[in-house]
Amino acid sequence: SAELAMYEAKADGRDSLRFFNADMQDQVHQRAELASAIYRALENDEFTLWYQPQYDAQGKILGMESLVRWEHPVKGVIMPGVFIPASEANGLILRLGNRILFKACTQLAAWSTHPLLGGLTVAVNVSASQLHNDAFVDDVCRILDETGANANLLELELTETLLVRNVEEAIVKMGRLRERGVRFSLDDFGTGYSSMNYLKRLPLEKLKIDRSFVRDLLTDPNDAAIVRTIVALGESLGLAVIAEGVETAAQRDMLATSGCCLYQGYLFSHPVPAAELEAGMTHTP
Ligand code: C2E
Ligand code: MG
Ligand code: MG
Ligand code: MG
Prior knowledge:
Strands 1, 2, 3, 4, 5, 6, 7, 8, 9 and 10 form a 10-stranded mixed beta sheet that branches. By secondary structure, this protein is an alpha/beta fold. It contains 12 helices and 10 strands. About 50% of the residues lie in helices and about 20% in strands. The chain is globular and about 50 Å long. The chain starts with a helix and ends with a helix. Bound molecules: ligand C2E and magnesium ion (MG) (3 copies).
């Protein structure tokens, strides 16, 4: 295909006069291999979404975050850290991102009649390059229409890297989707570049405290101070604050003491395939 040919042309360096040493050649080769493999995986529909629930202080599930997995026929489950950054670099993230949104919205629509999962939000991670793509707003609206998913239950997770590029454009696009009912959260919060000025202008509902601040919460007083600051920021801007990567009861208690009462992490549940989540839900009294 034309898309694949373009990656190959780039990969063998015909578009530059740069001199490649053996190592660089090797890296370029590996990158091209991964790009073709991702391309094939899209064709073969090997990407699936797993779901990790999010909880309130009473232990009630409020919604879940979808996390993409590559279920490779030979290599088994491949984690997003392996193929998301690569897809961002080679442009395949636009196709992969739309596939992910389609799957998440299809699941959201299917769950709408489920006695326990109906009405819960589904969060989808969106790369900055997806948001900055011209077709993004139309793509999301079309996918909502096609799947019949309730836009009010769709939450898009963005990272602060979106603020590095055109902020004004991001604000307009987010506003249009917000009008359609879609909500936004800021992922990995505290690791990026947000200025207070941007934060108050973005149509956000939620801040997600990056798990790096949760990890050493009990031993590093700076992390505890950062958590309290993010909670206070959320309160003053009218945003919900959720902690990611909560692994121990002690971390949860410390978060609660710091005023953070929404949680996501291995303490509660690992990300699981949709069927496993459904099976787990039916056991809840
Ligand atoms: P993220 O959006 O910040 O997702 C949270 C990551 O933390 C997930 O890793 C999740 O499995 C992991 N996690 C959850 N609870 C815990 C915990 O208690 N302890 C620890 N150590 N980790 C926990 P995962 O699934 O490997 O995803 C990594 C990143 O890849 C995500 O970070 C997100 O940036 C990206 N990603 C995942 N799915 C998608 C997707 O569908 N689209 C895009 N564009 N990016 C995605
Ligand atoms: Mg996320
Ligand atoms: Mg995160
Ligand atoms: Mg992350």
